[in-house]
Amino acid sequence: MLHKTRGIVLGHIKYGDTSIICKIYTEEFGLQTYIVNGVRSKSSKNKIALFQPLTLLDMVVYHKENRDINRISEMKCNMVFHSIPFEQKKIGMVIFLSELLTKTLKEQSPNQELFELILHTISYLDVIEEHYENLHLQFMIQLAAFLGFAPGTVEDILHEIRLSLTEEEKKNLSDLMTSNPDQYVRINNQSRRHLLDCLLRYYMIHVENFGAMNSLAVLQEIFG
After folding, report:
1. Which fold has domain 2-77?
2. pTM for this model (two decimals)
């Protein structure tokens, strides 16, 4: 049966000579895997561009419950990015966020609030011109709440991961935990790396097989 849904692309891998298998977090069905034929062929009119990380799509899909892989009947871009594809820092942020979501989203069931959080975050990243270098930290804190392990306090996190922070870093983390993405928290590069390490360790404890983040080195190189 055909259904309409919006979807946020998490990533894709090559399949055969011209096709891909992609992971998409959909508004109607949660995390889904789709096979898309022919998008890498010379005649596809660059449709592969629709499957770049965190692209928002309008889709008509074939959906069958408990099927591992479904198919997309129709698709088009819902929101054209104006800055993300052209700014190296934003590209790095998007790659990190998409890998984080790929590692943590498992449920094949809809969650409207989570879908809107991801959508709002990527929309905000596309329009903001400066002071977004903490966005991934704030998103990790917000996402943890949806995944069921929201930290109550800074001390809760430090107790679990068995690490210490300076008093200034503790205050920075506390401010991030109580701020919205559009509220800028001034943090130096070294402290930001420490805080990211803390949050990644926290995720490793709570998310099975979380493992290392391949995009971490790129993110740290871009933001210092």
Report:
1. OB fold (Dihydrolipoamide Acetyltransferase, E2P) (2.40.50)
2. 0.94
